[in-house]
## 1
Amino acid sequence: MLATKLRALLQRNKGRDLFDLDYALRVFEGLNSARTVECFLLYLGKGEVAISRAEAQQRMFQKLVNPGFFTDMSPLLPTDLAKALTEETLKAAFAKVMKELIDRMPGEEWAKVGKCGNGLGCETAIWPSLFQMLSS
Protein backbone atom coordinates (compact mmCIF):
# COMPACT_ATOMS: atom_id res chain seq x y z
CA MET A 1 0.00 0.00 0.00
CA LEU A 2 2.84 2.42 0.81
CA ALA A 3 4.46 1.67 -2.55
CA THR A 4 1.28 2.75 -4.34
CA LYS A 5 1.09 5.84 -2.14
CA LEU A 6 4.67 6.70 -3.14
CA ARG A 7 3.69 6.31 -6.80
CA ALA A 8 0.72 8.61 -6.22
CA LEU A 9 2.95 11.20 -4.56
CA LEU A 10 5.27 11.26 -7.56
CA GLN A 11 2.54 11.23 -10.21
CA ARG A 12 0.04 13.76 -8.87
CA ASN A 13 0.04 16.98 -6.86
CA LYS A 14 -1.82 16.00 -3.72
CA GLY A 15 -0.24 16.93 -0.41
CA ARG A 16 -2.27 14.20 1.27
CA ASP A 17 0.07 11.64 -0.33
CA LEU A 18 3.03 13.27 1.41
CA PHE A 19 1.08 13.46 4.67
CA ASP A 20 0.12 9.76 4.48
CA LEU A 21 3.68 8.62 3.81
CA ASP A 22 5.08 10.79 6.58
CA TYR A 23 2.43 9.47 8.97
CA ALA A 24 3.28 5.86 8.08
CA LEU A 25 7.01 6.49 8.53
CA ARG A 26 6.35 7.92 12.00
CA VAL A 27 3.71 5.46 13.20
CA PHE A 28 4.80 2.06 11.86
CA GLU A 29 7.71 1.20 14.11
CA GLY A 30 10.35 -0.80 12.29
CA LEU A 31 8.96 0.02 8.84
CA ASN A 32 11.47 -1.12 6.24
CA SER A 33 11.81 1.94 4.00
CA ALA A 34 14.19 0.18 1.65
CA ARG A 35 11.62 -2.58 1.12
CA THR A 36 8.92 0.01 0.46
CA VAL A 37 11.10 1.54 -2.28
CA GLU A 38 11.83 -1.93 -3.66
CA CYS A 39 8.08 -2.68 -3.87
CA PHE A 40 7.52 0.71 -5.49
CA LEU A 41 10.08 -0.08 -8.19
CA LEU A 42 8.52 -3.52 -8.78
CA TYR A 43 5.10 -1.91 -9.01
CA LEU A 44 6.35 0.60 -11.59
CA GLY A 45 8.09 -2.16 -13.53
CA LYS A 46 4.89 -4.15 -13.87
CA GLY A 47 3.25 -1.08 -15.37
CA GLU A 48 6.27 -0.53 -17.62
CA VAL A 49 6.85 2.88 -16.05
CA ALA A 50 10.21 4.20 -14.89
CA ILE A 51 10.92 7.03 -12.48
CA SER A 52 14.59 7.64 -11.73
CA ARG A 53 15.88 8.97 -8.43
CA ALA A 54 16.78 12.25 -10.13
CA GLU A 55 13.30 12.54 -11.65
CA ALA A 56 11.67 11.73 -8.30
CA GLN A 57 13.76 14.38 -6.53
CA GLN A 58 12.93 16.96 -9.19
CA ARG A 59 9.22 16.16 -8.96
CA MET A 60 9.30 16.52 -5.18
CA PHE A 61 10.92 19.95 -5.27
CA GLN A 62 8.54 21.11 -8.00
CA LYS A 63 5.60 20.27 -5.72
CA LEU A 64 6.82 22.84 -3.21
CA VAL A 65 6.19 25.72 -5.58
CA ASN A 66 2.62 24.55 -6.24
CA PRO A 67 0.47 26.74 -3.96
CA GLY A 68 -2.25 24.10 -3.67
CA PHE A 69 0.01 21.17 -2.84
CA PHE A 70 -0.36 21.42 0.94
CA THR A 71 -3.93 22.71 1.05
CA ASP A 72 -5.84 19.59 0.00
CA MET A 73 -5.31 17.60 3.17
CA SER A 74 -6.68 19.85 5.92
CA PRO A 75 -10.37 19.18 5.11
CA LEU A 76 -9.69 15.43 5.20
CA LEU A 77 -8.16 15.37 8.68
CA PRO A 78 -9.68 15.40 12.14
CA THR A 79 -9.64 18.95 13.52
CA ASP A 80 -6.75 18.34 15.93
CA LEU A 81 -4.50 16.99 13.17
CA ALA A 82 -5.51 19.75 10.75
CA LYS A 83 -4.63 22.40 13.33
CA ALA A 84 -1.25 20.75 13.87
CA LEU A 85 -0.27 21.33 10.23
CA THR A 86 2.23 24.15 10.30
CA GLU A 87 5.06 25.22 8.06
CA GLU A 88 7.44 23.36 10.37
CA THR A 89 5.45 20.10 10.34
CA LEU A 90 5.16 20.27 6.55
CA LYS A 91 8.92 20.85 6.24
CA ALA A 92 9.56 17.90 8.52
CA ALA A 93 7.19 15.68 6.51
CA PHE A 94 8.87 16.66 3.25
CA ALA A 95 12.36 16.06 4.67
CA LYS A 96 11.39 12.68 6.17
CA VAL A 97 9.85 11.36 2.94
CA MET A 98 12.81 12.64 0.91
CA LYS A 99 15.39 11.06 3.21
CA GLU A 100 13.66 7.77 3.93
CA LEU A 101 12.05 7.01 0.56
CA ILE A 102 13.04 9.21 -2.38
CA ASP A 103 16.77 9.28 -1.58
CA ARG A 104 16.77 5.47 -1.27
CA MET A 105 15.85 5.08 -4.91
CA PRO A 106 18.69 3.76 -7.05
CA GLY A 107 20.48 6.00 -9.49
CA GLU A 108 22.10 9.36 -9.61
CA GLU A 109 20.94 12.34 -7.61
CA TRP A 110 19.19 15.15 -9.48
CA ALA A 111 21.98 17.50 -10.60
CA LYS A 112 20.15 20.56 -9.28
CA VAL A 113 19.21 19.15 -5.89
CA GLY A 114 22.03 21.08 -4.21
CA LYS A 115 21.54 24.20 -6.34
CA CYS A 116 17.80 24.68 -6.03
CA GLY A 117 16.37 28.13 -6.37
CA ASN A 118 16.32 30.75 -9.11
CA GLY A 119 13.24 29.23 -10.74
CA LEU A 120 14.67 25.74 -10.96
CA GLY A 121 11.59 24.16 -9.45
CA CYS A 122 12.85 24.29 -5.88
CA GLU A 123 11.83 26.28 -2.88
CA THR A 124 14.91 27.73 -1.25
CA ALA A 125 13.31 31.16 -1.29
CA ILE A 126 10.17 29.78 0.37
CA TRP A 127 11.73 27.49 3.00
CA PRO A 128 15.44 28.28 3.42
CA SER A 129 15.90 25.85 6.31
CA LEU A 130 14.56 22.82 4.43
CA PHE A 131 17.92 21.96 2.88
CA GLN A 132 19.52 22.08 6.31
CA MET A 133 16.92 19.56 7.53
CA LEU A 134 17.56 17.31 4.52
CA SER A 135 21.31 17.28 5.09
CA SER A 136 21.22 16.61 8.84
## 2
Amino acid sequence: MSSNNNNTIEPILKVKDDEQPSSELKNKQTIDDTPLDEETRKKVEEILGKTPIVLLIKGDADRPFCKFSKRIVSLLISRGIQFSSFDVKSLDQNDEAQKKIYLGFKKYGNFPTFPQVYVNKELVGGLDICSGLDEENQLISTIKE
Protein backbone atom coordinates (compact mmCIF):
# COMPACT_ATOMS: atom_id res chain seq x y z
CA MET A 1 0.00 0.00 0.00
CA SER A 2 1.49 3.32 -0.96
CA SER A 3 0.20 6.83 -0.85
CA ASN A 4 0.69 9.54 -3.42
CA ASN A 5 0.54 13.30 -2.92
CA ASN A 6 -3.28 13.28 -2.96
CA ASN A 7 -3.49 11.00 0.10
CA THR A 8 -5.08 8.27 -2.01
CA ILE A 9 -4.10 4.65 -2.04
CA GLU A 10 -2.83 3.20 -5.29
CA PRO A 11 -4.69 0.16 -6.63
CA ILE A 12 -3.51 -3.18 -5.31
CA LEU A 13 -3.33 -4.83 -8.73
CA LYS A 14 0.24 -4.62 -9.98
CA VAL A 15 1.12 -6.27 -13.29
CA LYS A 16 4.53 -6.61 -14.93
CA ASP A 17 4.75 -4.80 -18.27
CA ASP A 18 4.89 -8.08 -20.19
CA GLU A 19 1.96 -9.64 -18.29
CA GLN A 20 -1.50 -8.25 -18.80
CA PRO A 21 -4.55 -9.50 -16.92
CA SER A 22 -7.52 -10.87 -18.82
CA SER A 23 -9.89 -8.15 -19.99
CA GLU A 24 -12.52 -9.43 -17.54
CA LEU A 25 -10.13 -9.13 -14.58
CA LYS A 26 -8.73 -5.85 -15.86
CA ASN A 27 -12.23 -4.33 -16.07
CA LYS A 28 -13.01 -5.36 -12.50
CA GLN A 29 -9.68 -4.41 -10.95
CA THR A 30 -8.66 -1.13 -12.51
CA ILE A 31 -9.95 2.39 -12.25
CA ASP A 32 -10.07 4.62 -15.29
CA ASP A 33 -8.29 7.92 -14.89
CA THR A 34 -11.13 10.23 -15.88
CA PRO A 35 -11.83 12.72 -13.10
CA LEU A 36 -14.80 12.29 -10.82
CA ASP A 37 -17.46 14.84 -11.78
CA GLU A 38 -18.64 17.24 -9.09
CA GLU A 39 -22.21 15.93 -8.87
CA THR A 40 -21.02 12.35 -8.37
CA ARG A 41 -18.36 13.44 -5.87
CA LYS A 42 -21.01 15.25 -3.80
CA LYS A 43 -23.27 12.18 -3.76
CA VAL A 44 -20.36 9.89 -2.79
CA GLU A 45 -19.30 12.28 -0.01
CA GLU A 46 -22.91 12.53 1.20
CA ILE A 47 -23.07 8.73 1.58
CA LEU A 48 -19.61 8.52 3.15
CA GLY A 49 -20.44 11.37 5.55
CA LYS A 50 -23.57 9.85 7.10
CA THR A 51 -21.58 8.42 10.04
CA PRO A 52 -17.91 8.60 11.06
CA ILE A 53 -17.24 5.00 9.90
CA VAL A 54 -18.86 3.80 6.69
CA LEU A 55 -18.44 0.35 5.19
CA LEU A 56 -19.17 -0.05 1.47
CA ILE A 57 -20.14 -3.68 0.93
CA LYS A 58 -22.09 -5.99 -1.31
CA GLY A 59 -25.24 -6.67 0.67
CA ASP A 60 -25.96 -5.21 4.08
CA ALA A 61 -24.30 -5.75 7.44
CA ASP A 62 -27.01 -8.20 8.52
CA ARG A 63 -26.77 -10.22 5.30
CA PRO A 64 -23.52 -9.64 3.41
CA PHE A 65 -23.67 -10.84 -0.18
CA CYS A 66 -20.11 -12.14 -0.59
CA LYS A 67 -17.48 -13.76 1.61
CA PHE A 68 -15.28 -10.65 1.60
CA SER A 69 -18.12 -8.44 2.80
CA LYS A 70 -19.04 -11.03 5.43
CA ARG A 71 -15.44 -11.16 6.69
CA ILE A 72 -15.04 -7.39 6.99
CA VAL A 73 -18.37 -7.07 8.82
CA SER A 74 -17.35 -9.86 11.22
CA LEU A 75 -13.94 -8.26 11.79
CA LEU A 76 -15.35 -4.82 12.62
CA ILE A 77 -18.05 -6.25 14.88
CA SER A 78 -15.56 -8.51 16.68
CA ARG A 79 -13.45 -5.45 17.48
CA GLY A 80 -16.42 -3.48 18.78
CA ILE A 81 -16.22 -0.95 15.96
CA GLN A 82 -19.54 0.78 15.28
CA PHE A 83 -20.18 1.55 11.63
CA SER A 84 -22.90 2.10 9.09
CA SER A 85 -22.92 0.21 5.83
CA PHE A 86 -23.98 0.97 2.29
CA ASP A 87 -24.93 -1.79 -0.15
CA VAL A 88 -23.17 -1.02 -3.43
CA LYS A 89 -25.26 -3.71 -5.13
CA SER A 90 -28.35 -1.59 -4.45
CA LEU A 91 -27.16 0.78 -7.17
CA ASP A 92 -28.80 -0.04 -10.51
CA GLN A 93 -26.04 -0.61 -13.07
CA ASN A 94 -28.56 0.09 -15.86
CA ASP A 95 -29.22 3.58 -14.48
CA GLU A 96 -26.44 5.89 -15.64
CA ALA A 97 -26.53 8.16 -12.56
CA GLN A 98 -26.42 5.21 -10.15
CA LYS A 99 -23.67 3.49 -12.13
CA LYS A 100 -21.64 6.72 -11.85
CA ILE A 101 -21.99 6.58 -8.05
CA TYR A 102 -20.87 2.92 -7.99
CA LEU A 103 -17.79 3.76 -10.07
CA GLY A 104 -17.43 7.00 -8.11
CA PHE A 105 -16.78 5.04 -4.91
CA LYS A 106 -13.88 3.31 -6.65
CA LYS A 107 -12.49 6.57 -8.01
CA TYR A 108 -12.99 8.54 -4.79
CA GLY A 109 -10.73 6.22 -2.78
CA ASN A 110 -8.69 5.14 -5.80
CA PHE A 111 -9.46 1.56 -4.74
CA PRO A 112 -10.81 -0.92 -7.31
CA THR A 113 -12.74 -3.43 -5.20
CA PHE A 114 -15.32 -3.77 -2.45
CA PRO A 115 -15.56 -3.89 0.51
CA GLN A 116 -14.12 -0.50 1.43
CA VAL A 117 -13.84 0.99 4.92
CA TYR A 118 -13.95 4.79 5.28
CA VAL A 119 -13.34 6.85 8.41
CA ASN A 120 -14.40 10.49 8.16
CA LYS A 121 -14.57 10.13 4.36
CA GLU A 122 -10.96 8.85 4.22
CA LEU A 123 -10.30 5.37 2.86
CA VAL A 124 -8.69 2.97 5.35
CA GLY A 125 -8.76 0.08 2.88
CA GLY A 126 -10.43 -3.16 1.99
CA LEU A 127 -10.50 -6.54 3.67
CA ASP A 128 -6.81 -7.35 3.13
CA ILE A 129 -5.60 -4.01 4.47
CA CYS A 130 -7.94 -4.05 7.46
CA SER A 131 -7.06 -7.67 8.24
CA GLY A 132 -3.37 -6.78 8.06
CA LEU A 133 -3.87 -3.84 10.40
CA ASP A 134 -5.77 -6.12 12.77
CA GLU A 135 -2.97 -8.72 12.73
CA GLU A 136 -0.56 -5.95 13.73
CA ASN A 137 -2.99 -4.75 16.44
CA GLN A 138 -3.36 -1.42 14.61
CA LEU A 139 -6.89 -1.62 13.24
CA ILE A 140 -8.64 -0.01 16.19
CA SER A 141 -6.03 2.74 16.57
CA THR A 142 -6.08 3.46 12.82
CA ILE A 143 -9.87 3.75 12.77
CA LYS A 144 -10.07 5.84 15.94
CA GLU A 145 -7.41 8.38 14.82
